[in-house]
Amino acid sequence: MDGPHGHREWLIPDSPMDNALRHGIAALLGPGPRPALDLRPLDRIGRLAELARAEHPAPSGPLTPAALPTRL
Q1: Would you state the pLDDT for residue 69?
Q2: Which residues, including other chains, have CB under 8 Å from residue 2's CB and lie 6 or more apart?
Q3: Which of 29, 34, 37, 43 makes the best surface tag, with the fewest CB within 10 Å?
């Protein structure tokens, strides 16, 4: 696409959701056996939601891996 001042700009789709959907559809519709069901991302989302709803406030400042639950 043409950007301001006549410069050429490139739009590279890099949405994590789009990439995950594209990979998932390719795996399901591609040749060979279907991959095993992987629910680990849903489990991680659930743990993050529990952390967000916790009674104790989140630590202030930037989060470090040590400040997060061990099974993220």
Answers
A1: 59
A2: 8, 9
A3: 37
Give per-residue pLDDT as tens, 14-40: 788 788 888 889 988 999 888 888 888
Q: Which amino acid is at 19?
A: N
If one counts the domains in the chain, the total is 1
Q: What is this structure's pTM?
A: 0.37
Range of the domain at 15: 1-32
Contact 27, 34 (CB under 8 A): yes
Instruction: Determine contact, residues 12/6, Cβ cutoff 8 Å.
Output: no
Please determine, for residue 71, whether its predicted confidence score (pLDDT) is greater than 60. no
Establish if 16 belongs to a structural domain. Answer: yes
